[in-house]
Amino acid sequence: MRLPRGSSAQGSKAYARALAKCGILTAEESETIVGGLDKVASEWQAGQFVIKQGDEDIHTANERRLTELIGGVGGKLHTGRSRNDQVATDTRLWLYAQLLEIRASLHQLLEVSCSRSEAEVHVLMPGFTHLQPAMTVRWGHWMMCHAAALQRDDQRLRDLLPRVATLPLGSGALAGNPFLVDRQFLAKELGMVGGVCPNSMDAVADRDYVLETCFFATTAMVHLSRWAEDLIIYSSGQFGFVQCSDAYATGSSLMPQKKNPDALELIRGKAGRMQGHMAGLLAVVKGTPTTYNKDLQECWPMMYDLVDSVHDTLRIATGVLSTIKIREDRMLKGLSPDMLATDLAEYLVRKGVPFRETHHISGAAVKMAEGRGCTLFDLSVADLQSINPLFGDDVTQVWDYNRSAEMRDTEGGVSTRSVLEQVAKMRAYMKEEQATPLFKKDA
What we know:
Blueprint: H1 5-21, H2 27-46, H3 58-70, H4 83-119, E1 124-129, E2 132-138, H5 139-164, H6 183-189, H7 200-205, H8 208-235, E3 242-243, H9 262-286, H10 299-323, E4 325-326, H11 328-333, H12 341-349, H13 355-372, H14 381-385, H15 401-407, H16 416-434
Antiparallel strand pairs: 1-2, 3-4
């Protein structure tokens, strides 16, 4: 199992300085411990740390090695500290750093969505309800649809970050620290933007930060799964709207004509595992009495996996979207005259006919076309006037897919102006968020 080794040294160095601040360590002892911890961390990083029999966990292993390096003064480090508050601190530090990386990757996917939506805003395609062709939309509008869902995930992640970066250290085993360690100092030293856990018993018992991270990851993965499912369908032979890059697809071991969207299918599959982790974490935590119990250790494998999975998935999704090829001709071919039946109804609305009536009138036109074995486009003005006399010669303007999209020019709609406005708003949102302390600038 992976361990937050760097975070363990980081927390211990801050604690050594806090012990010096309250007089338990001299300044010289504190710096000796800090220097020793740096050497321990370097050994882990270089793969040279030797785990020995008797090392119960990462904490005891580090303290044993620290004492080997600097002598008996290393034994003072654990004064007033418990593994209960230590493990909660280390995992929060590790998780906070990982979530900042994930947020940067999420923003990269949003930027690719914006860039392609802007560049390909002219591309029309069918929009679906119940997986049935419904109305004319834009390829860029489809991309911004999924970007909007991912933006909500980003907002959830932003709101979660301060609750992850809240300090348990100084809570001891459960009752607090008897040496008046300055916890506000510790929070600042460790960059805990959420401040200090307000209750020592809750501090060592709390795993909400893992549960909330899992909820964020599960929801984000559900959104990415739906995105992937759309693209899997759109890349199928029956649709042929898009073609995945060879880097994100594989052939068949038997059928040479096949090109399978493996990366998208794996994204869809991983979403199910995240849901399993959500149920697993809740089951682990639900029965534990106050405060710390060993059951809580079972949270870590799921936490590590969900962090890896959502981060990898975001980066893979960015690669897929960056390289996917669209086939405008197939998208246009997917549009059909019956998809303009609503536009025909709206034509009469503009002439003062109540929509409920125009809906039936348009339905009668569809039925007439079906009865003749033709499309709505093939009906003459006279044919339409036989259904309702308010149809005029200008009704033929309705038979224009681009016009249909451009008519939906409301905020959030499918017109060119509206799609570009959505892109501009998303970029403004990202710029504002990236200027805050809750975004890693150098990711």
